[in-house]
Amino acid sequence: MLTHPATTGLSGKSQLPASAAAAFNRGNAAFRDQQFEAALEAANQALAQAPALEQAVFLRARCLVKLGRWMPAREAFAYTLRLNPANYSAWLEAGHLCRQMGELQQAEGAYQKAIQAAPQRYEALLALTRVLEQSGRVQEAAPSYTRALQAAAAAGPDVPRSVHTHIARYRLERGDTHGALQALHSALVAADADGASVDDVAEIRIDMGEALWRQGQREEALGTLTAASSAERESTLNRLAQLSFRYNLWQEALDVLQRSVQLHPQSAWAHWNLAHLLAECWQMDKAKSVLAQAEALAPMPAAASMRASIAGRQGDADTALAYYRELAADPKAGPGMASSAAMSSLYSDKLSAQEVADLHRSLFAPLGKGARKAQSFSRAPLAGRRLRLGLVSADFHHQHPVNIFMQPVLREIDRSRFEVFLYFTGVSYDEQTHLAKSRVEHWVEAAALNDMQLSKRIDADAIDVLLDLAGHTGQQRMSLFAQRVAPVQATYLGYPGSTGVPNMDWILGDKIVTPKENDALCSEQVARLPGMVFCYAPEVDYPFPKWNRADAKRKLTFASFNNVPKLTARTLSLWARVLRAVPDSRLLLKAPSFKDPGAIDAFSKRLIDLGVDLARVEFRGPTGLSDMMAEYADVDIALDPVPYNGGTTSLQAMWMGAPVITQLGPHFVSRMGASFMTAAGLPGWVARSDEQYVAIAQAMAADRSALMTLKLRLRKRLQQRPAWDILAHTRAMEDAILRMAGAAAH
Question: Domain spanning 374-535+728-745: which CATH class is it, in words?
Answer without folding.
Answer: alpha beta
